[in-house]
Amino acid sequence: MTVYFLCAVLLTMGLYCLVAKKNIVKKVIGVCIMDYAVNLYLIIIGYKKGGIAPIVEPGMSAETLEKFVDPLPQALVLTSIVIGLGVLALMVSMCIRLYERHGTFDMSQISKLRG
Amino acid sequence: MNNVVPLFVALPLGAAFIIPLLGHWWKKSGEVFATAVSAVLAVMAILQIGAPAVVHHMGGWAPPVGIAVVSDGLSVLLLIAINVVGFLCVLFSLRYMTAYTGLPKYYGLFMLMVAGMNGVVVSGDLFNLFVFLEIASIASYALVAFGVDADELEAGFKYLILGSVASVMILFAVGTLYAVTGSLNMADVAREIATKFGGGRPNPAVLLAAGFFLMGFGLKAALVPFHAWLPDAHPSAPAPISAMLSGVVIKSLGIYAICRVFFNVFAVASGGPSAVIIANGMIAFAILSIVIGGLLAVGQWDLKRLLAYSSIGQIGYVMLGIGVGARVLATGGVRSVAALAILGGLFHLINHAAFKSLLFLSSGAIQHSTGTRNMKVLGGIKERMPVTGMTTNLAALSIAGVPPFSGFWSKLIILVAVVKAGHPAIAGIAIAMAFVTLVYYIKLQREVIFGEARGPVMDAREAPALMTVPLVILAVVCVGFGLLYPVIGDRILEPARDVLLNGAEYVKLVLG
Predict the structure, then answer these.
(1) Angstroms from B164 CA to nearest CA on chain A
(2) B109 vs chain A: nearest CA distance in angstroms?
(3) Is the Cβ–Cβ distance between B114 and B122 less than 8 Å?
(4) How does pLDDT run across B331-387, given as a tens digit for each residue?
(5) Which of B325, B341, B345 is nearest to B221 (CA)?
(6) According to the model, what pLDDT value does residue B267 have?
(7) Which of A112, B330, B396, B496 has a CB 3.0–4.6 Å from the CB of B275, allowing a cystine?
């Protein structure tokens, strides 16, 4: 249970960083922390103490089969990490462009649109 | 027909790969491939009308082990909206986008966005839905910032940050559902939820997942209070992209996903766990969106910003119809009332796709010819640009709810259903806000379409034929939806409504 709680704390920290920080690079870091918190959450769901890789070979006993970890959350996390990479690349490139336009990373100075 | 459905994803995805690849040597690759592929997709989508629901097993693996591609009434409704509006936006782009550079990238991203949305709509798997949602979102973040000016970048960055938060929430919800049900196939998850947690007290984990789904998809649909990105992002994008974003992206990524997840997976309709709480949440967001979106639209002087705020309000109407339908079903009310409410919501969804994309494309044509979208300096468009003026006028009348145009009927159906469901106060708010809608579209008419041609409009000429043809087609659709309701209702809307009304049928359809 503690791990889930810590995972939620990580998620909240990411959200706090996103909301409270004015520097857009720090906002990007906040999004990344949130992303990692969810990836960690998926990993915890599929975690099994003393688990082994789920590769079936001939002659395996029922006990060994019991020890297999659930491969699905790991596959999800791999996909999610790749998606996160794409989003991060886009975010960072936008930060660079914004810096070129405004000469600053401060969102309160960049912001002109009223929402 | 069974094998056609995956092509809705495969074709645009292939085009999105080929266009930028060839774009190095062949500058026109984007125009050629995007037009061809989107035309084929639009025809394929229209041919799907009336087709029976199909489940395609990818790679021959039957669900719940394999990935299923499902096309039922609700998917077909959205496929038609996405691909027809997509095709018309590509046509409009051919001339409009010549002012920009890097066109192969533009068309590549456009195709990627279409592929993502089609994927969301036909996916039968929660995680696939998330992946396609991300594909469509990433493409649209890049397209919003396509102009790379200060405003575009800022709007794109805001959209990107809030969109990422939404994605995180959706993934969290998907993970939670996987943890409690051990499956990702929507039908299988629905069956597990129904057998494990059906009846009795709501399960906290399922409720948590539902809350995160509602927040995540609500952010993508720009429901108030998650709307902050939309009024910046939609006006900043190039006009065809604004039309896509307001016309179909917020619907397929937001409203469709909410419908599918809550009606088919959480089985709100058959009084599944915590159904009333979810339905109340939907109605609350809907009313907030209608009121706040409508009131903020009145004060806008930027043509596209006004349209963007109006999108928030109109999405609220769609959500209100669906939410009231869900609540009636969840509390065991009269089924015919719920059917009416859901039908009204879906009708308003497809109407809004038609007239809001028409309005955004018209605003693009106006900006193209006059160089401005400031309503204070525009005026008399009707004199100088008769075709654009006429189509804008039709769309404005339609969205404001003037009979006999389509917007009037869909709002009327929603309001009648809300009253019948026993919420006269909510109906009162919705009627009052319908008048506010009328007010800001009369403002648009007065300031932009009618009046004397002045300032930049004096030298304006009618937009080129490639831009006016999509406008005229969409205007015909707007009028047609209003007058030919019996045809559309039977063929497109009622199958879609039945999917939501009989939410549990989905399990039988997919798992056999």
Answers:
(1) 7
(2) 13
(3) no
(4) 888 999 999 999 999 999 999 999 999 999 999 999 999 988 888 888 888 888 999
(5) B345
(6) 83
(7) B330
CA of residue B44 relative to chain centroid, distance? 19
CA distances from B3 to A9, B60, B61, B183, B405 (A): 46, 12, 14, 25, 37
pLDDT cut 90: percent of chain B above it: 68
∠ CA(B18), CA(B105), CA(B87), 5° rounding? Answer: 75
Q: Give the one of B153, B161, B164 whose C-beta lies nearest to A98's C-beta.
A: B153
Distance from C-alpha of B343 to C-alpha of B322, rounded to nearest angstrom: 8
Listed in sequence order, the residues at least 6 apart from B166 whose beta carbon sits closer than 8 Å to its beta carbon are B215, B216, B217, B219, B220, B226
B208 at interface of A, judged by CB pairs closer than 8 A: no
For B183, other C-beta atoms within 10 Å of its C-beta total 21
Residue B457 in contact with partner chain A when CB distance is under 8 A: no
Nearest Cα to Cα of residue B399 among B364, B441, B432 = B441
Look up the CATH number of domain A2-47+69-110: 1.10.287.3510
* Mean pLDDT in residue range A11-27: 94
Q: Is the dihedral of CA B426, B428, B434, B440 positive or negative?
A: negative
* Chain A interface includes B293 (CB < 8 A): no
Q: What is the ipTM of this complex?
A: 0.94
Question: What's the start-to-end Cα distance of chain B, in Å?
Answer: 18
Give B212-263 pLDDT, tens digit per residue: 999 999 999 999 899 989 999 999 999 999 999 999 999 999 999 999 999 9
At residue B106, φ and ψ (nearest 5 deg) are -60, -50
Q: Report pLDDT digits (tens) over B408-463.
A: 999 999 999 999 999 999 999 999 999 999 999 999 998 888 888 877 888 788 88
Average pLDDT, chain B: 91
CB contact under 8 A, B231 and A76: no
Contact state of B231 with A115 under an 8 Å Cβ cutoff? yes
What pLDDT is recorded for position A99? 94
Tens digits of per-residue pLDDT, B282-329?
999 999 999 999 999 998 999 999 999 999 999 999 999 999 999 999
Q: Is B307 exposed, middle or buried (0-12, 13-18, 19+ CB in 10 A)?
A: buried
Map out the domains of chain A as residue ranges.
2-47+69-110
- pLDDT value at position B200? 62
Nearest residue, CB atoms, A111 vs list B154, B160, B165: B154
**In sequence order, which residues have a C-beta less than 8 Å from that of residue A15 and are 6 or more positions away?**
A30, A34, B165
Please determine, for residue B3, whether its predicted confidence score (pLDDT) is greater than 80.
Answer: no
**Interface contact B443, partner A, CB < 8 A:** no
pTM for this model (two decimals): 0.94
In 3D space, the residue among B404, B407, B470, B461 whose CA is nearest the CA of residue B434 turns out to be B407
